[in-house]
């Protein structure tokens, strides 16, 4: 299993994504601190780390332990969360995940989120809905998750 670190804005779906990937019941839980799942094989970060530049150092230090950087962008959040080239601060593989695609009001919303992740440095993009389980198999396969 590749060890991912999930980075994104508050309420973009990082924790829900972790819960779905691990086969857990989906329940709202505000991430207050860095959390490690599946015996330290999955890292979930608070959205505030992404939204406030003064916490970027916490992201870079925590990411040292990860195998892959996962940049997460909700289709419902139209803020430019990631600056262009954001991922270049991490010398690791970077992927992007567009979340909440079931809530897209227009296909252009998904395209916008994909463009944001590409500009941030994601080399591969996955579009998912953890709620409906759409697209989750592709992420599970990429991360080599064999059991929940």
From TrEMBL:
SUPFAM superfamilies: P-loop containing nucleoside triphosphate hydrolases
One Pfam family of this chain: PduV-EutP
Origin: domain of life: Bacteria
Keyword annotations from UniProtKB, A to Z: Nucleotide-binding
PANTHER family found in the cross-reference section: PROTEIN YOEF
Family note: Belongs to the EutP/PduV family.
Protein name (Swiss-Prot/TrEMBL): EutP/PduV family microcompartment system protein
